[in-house]
Amino acid sequence: MRKFFGIEKLTAGMFWRNLALIVLGSLISSIGINAFLVPHKFLSSGVSGLSQLFSYLTPLSVGTYVLLLNIPLFIMGWFYVGRTFVIGSAVGLIAFTGCLYATEWMSHAGWAPEAMLSALIGGVLSGGGTGLVFRANSSHGGIDIVAAAIKKRWSYSIGTVAFVFNVFIVTLLGLIFGLHAALYTIVAHFCSAMALDRVMTGIDTSRAVFIISSEPQKIADMITKKLNRGVTFLEGEGAYLGRRQKVIYCVVSLSQLARVKFYVKSLDPNAFLTVAEVSEVSGEGFRAVPI
Q: In the chain, N or C terminus with fewer CB closer than 10 Å?
């Protein structure tokens, strides 16, 4: 199992956990596509979106087109991208295709009568499911392979290639099925991108706090004792006065942020404090985002 899923040292536990993530993510994406997007002739992003467009115009199913369109792409990726990436993506493709076939009946179940809700829910499910697959160091193939190959050959970013491709398929959809279908598809793509990003970075977010104060040790002791959070002193120097002083850096949960502000103001009302949102915080006192 060496280098499988793009991981150098893959244990049996990691293998089955990643495989479960791939299957679960593929199932969620398939439900979003078949239950919510297909009934209204909306599209997901990438090659799966192009596959949906073809399925609207022919008797073949979405899963069949996903498989057929990806075969030449995987052959190209084998030579231009790398075998590790292609093998990991092949697992995702097989799971995704199987789930598309298994959930095909949902497109006729009548679960999505309202167009806007269908675009929102379908986009969130398709993007969130894809995010889970990415978390397992895999993908559903398609535009990911094309983008990786183009990036390697011409240095265009993967995001640029994916954007151009999605603009192309949305334009085709608008020409064939009308402006409303294209506009709802754009809504679905936006929701998909937001859900994918949230799944990739983690739902739980923390706050990084930077504090410049004349009482750094007292504030640090208060945060350590009252909140049981680690504190780091950074060396800072004022640009105007040239005075060196300690800068307090700590990461706290959102629920603890108000208490940090209270402690700082009570010890030093003139302290300078900034707060920034951070994600994927791991270490003592924080729950690591599972991969």
A: N
What DSSP line would sit under 150-180, residue for residue? HHHHH---HHHHHHHHHHHHHHHHHHHH-HH
- Helical residues (DSSP H) of 81-233, grouped into ranges: 83-102, 115-135, 143-154, 158-177, 179-201, 216-227
Residues of the chain with CATH 3.30.70.120: 205-279
Take residue 63 and report the two structure tokens written for it. Answer: 């899963």
**Strand-pair category, 244-253 with 272-279:** unpaired
CB 205 within 8 A of CB 277: yes
pLDDT per residue as tens digits for the range 132-152? 888 887 788 778 777 777 766
Exposed / middle / buried, residue 260 (Cβ in 10 Å: 0-12, 13-18, 19+): buried
In this prediction the pTM is 0.75
* Six token digits for residue 168: 């192309």
Beta bridge pairs of residue 247: 212, 234
Task: Classify burial at 70, counting beta carbons within 10 Å of its beta carbon; exposed 0-12, middle 13-18, buried 19 or more.
Answer: buried
d(CA 278, CA 206): 5
Print burial letters for 120-150: b (CB count within 10 Å at least 16), e (below 16).
bbbbbbbbbbbbbbbbbbbbbbbbbbbbbbb
Check residue 284 and give its pLDDT.
62
Q: Please, what is the Cα angle at 39 between 35 and 41, to 5 degrees? A: 125
